[in-house]
Design brief:
Chain A is an alpha/beta fold. Chain A is built from seven helices and five strands. A three-stranded parallel sheet of chain A has the order 1-3-5. Chain A has a two-stranded parallel ribbon with strand order 2-4. Chain A starts with a strand and ends with a helix. In chain B, helix 5 (about 130-150) packs antiparallel against helix 8. Classes of the chains: A alpha/beta, B alpha/beta.
């Protein structure tokens, strides 16, 4: 079977995809398709604004649940602007790092506090 | 009670110190009539900061707020940007179109905010030398910061305001919340006690987020990259810390008082026709996304 097409505009219901809760709606759809081991074509047609906050929830969160190779084999995108693509790439790279080490945030705060001690 | 004079308020450490001292002096008031004078200068984008402060010290209407003396030029601009409409003044039409309207928004008003940005900012003709990509980057930067305020602050309202300086090719835009601020957010979500200065330093680093179970921390990092290339400015106020990125230099200074909430103020250069390549665009093949 061909890839399942997930149309962001129709899920969110508007051209501005800025809110994390709207990202969650897209995540739910992607999660269902990936669980069925199907390929997904994510269409950004008619989407005008994209924030990293939206993309973190829509796509970044997939890296918590599915392994990188599976995501790489399953997902593709179309009709995304260049700046959207750049944002998405950064979101993906950041999500991979984040979910590899869930304690990283606490450790990073200790590092900031530690720098102060050394001054 | 004698009136409070807010005099010569600029977008700088001194301006924020004056505003936050005023906040500190009145935040515990009850059944007072607070009379305010605005003299010499008031940077119009700071209407967002003053609006947040006045709403807090108004204490759900238990205190009265009254402007008793506003210097003419300040009054005109604050009537044009709609700020003084909240305090009984008439709205004045902005003939030169240099103000970006003062808004007091609920976190659920994000769709309205997007529309306001598009109408007030993006569809203007005042930026002849600005490339489309810069336009888009400015809009995205503001969207990201609005969503951040909405996500992290627990604030009932978010206050925004902007101002153009056509001859200086400069646009200021300020977003304020009266929520819990950077340090308390870290303490609450990550269980670590941290100073406001360290909290801002931490938040400026790419990938640092207080969100649980979802990655983040890109909005400020991307903003910082863009502003550096655009030769603009970022100012952040939270708790007792004042952060500034200007001329490629970051500095953090301590404020004299403590502001419960956060201010993010962005200055964009509008005579910028660069085609932007940020770090990831220059270095990586962006078609290989996943």
């Amino acid at each position: 079977m061909d890839a399942v097409k997930i149309d962001i505009f129709s899920i969110v219901g508007q051209k501005d995809c800025t809110l994390p809760e709207d990202g969650d709606k897209v995540f739910n759809a992607l999660q269902r398709v990936l669980k069925e081991n199907k390929k997904v074509l994510i269409s950004f047609k008619n989407v005008e604004k994209l924030t990293t906050a939206f993309l973190n929830n829509a796509i970044g969160k997939l890296y918590k649940e599915f392994d990188e190779e599976k995501i790489k084999q399953s997902l593709s995108v179309e009709e995304i602007s260049d700046s959207g693509k750049v944002r998405l790439k950064r979101v993906v790279t950041n999500a991979k790092n984040y979910f590899k080490n869930p304690d990283k945030m606490r450790e990073s705060i200790k590092e900031i506090l530690g720098e102060d001690d050394g001054e | 009670m004698p009136s409070d004079k807010l005099s010569n308020i600029h977008n700088d450490l001194d301006g924020y110190n004056k505003l936050i001292r005023f906040y500190e002096e009145h935040k515990d008031d009850i059944f007072e009539n607070i009379e305010i004078e605005l003299t010499t200068w008031f940077d119009a984008n700071l209407s967002a900061v003053l609006g947040a402060i006045l709403d807090t010290i108004k204490n759900d209407g238990l205190n009265g707020i009254k402007f008793i003396n506003i210097q003419n030029n300040i009054q005109t601009i604050l009537q044009k940007n709609g700020f003084l409409s909240f305090y009984g003044y008439d709205k004045i039409h902005d003939t030169f179109n240099t103000t970006l309207q003062y808004k007091k928004l609920k976190p659920t008003d994000s769709r309205y905010f997007n529309q306001y940005l598009e109408d007030d900012l993006l569809n203007r003709k005042e930026f002849p030398n600005m490339s489309d990509v810069v336009h888009e980057r400015i809009s995205e930067s503001i969207q990201e910061m609005f969503v951040n305020a909405r996500m992290h602050s627990e604030s009932e309202f978010i206050y925004t305001c902007g101002q153009f300086f056509p001859s200086e090719h400069r646009l200021n835009f300020t977003i304020v919340d009266s929520g819990i601020g950077f340090a308390k957010r870290i303490e609450k979500n990550l269980g670590q006690t941290i100073s406001s200065s360290d909290a801002i330093r931490w938040a400026m680093i790419e990938g640092h987020t207080t969100k649980q179970g979802v990655s983040g921390g890109l909005g400020l990092a991307i903003l910082k990259e863009f502003i550096t290339l655009n030769k603009g400015k970022i100012q952040i106020v939270s708790g007792d810390a004042f952060y500034e990125l200007s001329d490629n230099t970051e500095k953090i200074q301590k404020l004299n008082n403590y502001f419960d909430g956060s201010v993010i103020s962005m200055t964009f250069k509008t005579d910028d026709n660069k085609t932007y390549k940020l770090a990831s665009e220059a270095q990586e093949n962006i078609n290989d996304i996943f």
